[in-house]
Structure prediction request, 714 residues.
Amino acid sequence: MKRMKKLLTGLLTLAMTLSMMTMTAFAAEGGSTATTTKMPTIDTSKDVSLTIHKYEYNGNLKPDGTGSETDAVPGDAKPLSGVQFTIWKVANLDAYYGKDGDALPKVEDFVLTGKGNAAVLKKNGTEIPQIASGRTDDNGIAKFSHGFITQGLYYVSETDAPANVTGKTKDFLVSLPMTNVEGDDWIYDVHVFPKNKTTYGGVTLVKKGKEGTKAAVSLEGAEFILQMKDKEATTAKWDYLKYDASSTSAKWTYTGVASTDATKFKTDSNGMINVKDLTAGTYRFIEVSAPKGYIMDGTKKYQFTINNAGEVTWEEDANVGGIGTTTGEGAAYSAIVNITNEKPDTEKFVMDRTNKDWEADADYRVGAEVPYLIRVDVPSNVEKLKTFKLTDTMKNLTYKDGSFKIYKEKKPAYTVTDEISLGITPAFSTDKKTWTIDFNTVDTTAGTITSAVKEYAGKSIYIYFVATLDEDAAMTEAGNPNNITLDYSNAIYPTTEDPDNPNKPKDPEIDYIKDVVNVFTFGIDVLKLDGEATTHNTPLEGVTFDLYRVKDGVSLPAAPAKVTETWLKTAGNAVKIGSKTTGTDGKLSFEGLDNATYYLVETQTKAGYNLLKEPYKAVLNLTATFTKETTKKITPDSMNGTATIVTTETKTTTTYGTGEGATNGKFAVTVKNYKGFTLPTTGGIGTFVFTFAGIAMMAAAVILLITSKKKKAE
Prediction:
C-alpha cells in the first residue's frame, strides 16, 4: 500500500506539472484525486502513443487538459501546421515506480540547446539521445507511436515553428501512460493540446502606370510572384510560395513549392495587390508580367521584412530596388509599397505657317521648307533597355541638310543656344527621306548597354529638323504624311542566370509607337471659255496666265484702289508662282500651293479676243480634314500566351476653315473672254459703256480733223 501511495503521489505530481504549462499548451490545470482503491496496475505490455494537437490561439481562455482525445478546444482556435516537436525519453517507468522510487524529475533539471534537428538535451552534463522528431500536419497533429516510443517519462520540446508563432509552448514532461482525470485508470494513448500565439503581417502593393510625362495612374493587370528567404539555407536562397485561401490552418506553403505552382498576384482595377497572413521573415516581390505597352523590369526585387510583431520594413537598398513606407494599412495590411511601370511616349508636330505654332498638320507650297518637331519621353530605366530607337519616314518630303537639332524644351522658335548635344547623329537614307537614331547601343560581349540619353532619363527631349516639300507632292486629302516610329524593349531581363528569379536571360520583345503629322498642298484649276453669245462656253486654247501669291501679312490696296499687275510686281507685295497656258480643252492648273490669296494675270489670249483688264482674284481657303492617329504595337510577354495586339488611337481632327469650289484639293476658276471691243472679264462691269465711249471719242477726233482741214482751206 505504501508503494502504491508513492506511485500515485508521483503520478499526481506529474499531472500537476502538466497542469502548470502556459496557456500556449492545453495541459491539465486540475483533476480529481484518484483513490488508491480504484487505481489498477499498469499493464507494461501495452503500447503507448503521444499525439500532439497544435493550435493557433490568441485568446485568453484556458481549457483544462486531461490527456484525453476529447479535451475541449476553443471555438476560435485553428490547427497550426509546420510546428516541430522533438521528444527525449528521460526515464523508464520502473525508475520512479520501483521499490523505492526515484524522485520525479522537473523540466528545470534539463538543459536544451539548439533548435530543429540540431536540438540537444542534457542532464547533469550528460547528453540524452533523441527518440523522435516530427512536424504537425495540416490538421495541426504530430503523433509519436509504438516503434518510436515505449512506456516511460518523456521530455517534449517545440524545437521549431513557423515564423508567425510568437509564443512558443514551454517544454514539458509527460508520462506514458498517465492517469485519467478521475484517477481510476491509465491513459495509454495520451493527447495534449498545446496552443501558440501567432502574429501575421501583410502588405499592400500599389502599382502605378506612367505613360511618358503624363501623371501616373492606377495600373491593372501587372503580375507578381512572392518569395520568402529560406531561413535554414546557409547561403541566400529564395523559396516560392503558394497561397490557399480556403485552408483552415496555414494559408501559405513555404517550402517545396515549384516555380510553376507558385501563386501569382495580379493588380486589380485600383492597381492593388493585398497580401496577408504572412509569417515573420524576409520576402520579395518580383514582377513577371506587365500590362501591354509598359516596360517590365524583371531584375528588380521589392524586398521587405516582417518581424515577430507583424511590423513591416521595406528595404531601401538600391541593389534590391525596394521602395515604400511603413505606414499602417489596417490589421491585415501593415505596410504599403508603391511601384511604377513606365511606358515611353512620342509625338510629332509640324509648324503652322500662319500662327507659327506646333500643330498636327499644316499647309505648304511645293519647294517650301517645312519645320518639324518630335517629342520623345525618355523612360527612367532607359539604360536597361536593349532597344530605344527613333525612325522618321517622310512622304513627298526631303530632309534639309544640317537642320537636325536636339533641344530640351518645346518652343515656337529655336536658337543655337538652346541646342543640346547627345553625341549622336541620325543615319540617313540615300534619298534623305528616312533617318534613324539608336539612342542605346549594346556591348554584346559584356552585355552592357550605353545610353546616349541617360542624363535625360525620366524627362523629354525635342528633335527639330526641316524638310522641303517635293515637286510631286500630293494634293489630295491624303496629304503628305510624315511619321515617326519609336521602337523600345518591352521588358528588362537578367543578363545572368539566377536560379531564384523566375525571369530568365532572354531578348525582350520590341514594341513601338507611331505618330504621324501631315502637310497639305493645294492647287488652282483654270477653265478658259468663250463668253460670246453665239459661241458661248467654247474652250479657248492658248491663253496664258501668270499666277501671283500675295505675301503673308501684306494688306491689299484699300478701296476704291484695286490690285493691279504693277502692284503685284512691286517688291514685297507678292511672289510670282509661274506661268501656264491653256490647252485645247481650255484648261490649265497651278499646283503645290498653300492656302493664301492669289491673283491670275492674263498675259496672252487667243487672237480676236481681248485680255482681262485687271488681275483675277482667287482666294485659297480649302478644307483638308486630317485625323491624327497614334498607332501602338503591343507585344505582351510570352508567358501570358496572348498574341500581338495592335491598337490605333485617334488623337485630334484638324480642318482649315471653309473652301470655295474645292475638289480634291483644287480651287476651280472659270474665266471668260469676249471678242472685238468687248473687254474679256468674268461677270464684272458691262462692256457697253466702254465700247460707246470709245466710238464717241473716235468720232469726235474725225470731226475735229475735218473741221481743222476746212479752216486751213479757207
Summary: The chain is about 10% helix and 40% strand. The CA atoms of residues 83 and 161 lie 4 Å apart. The chain has a mean pLDDT of 80.
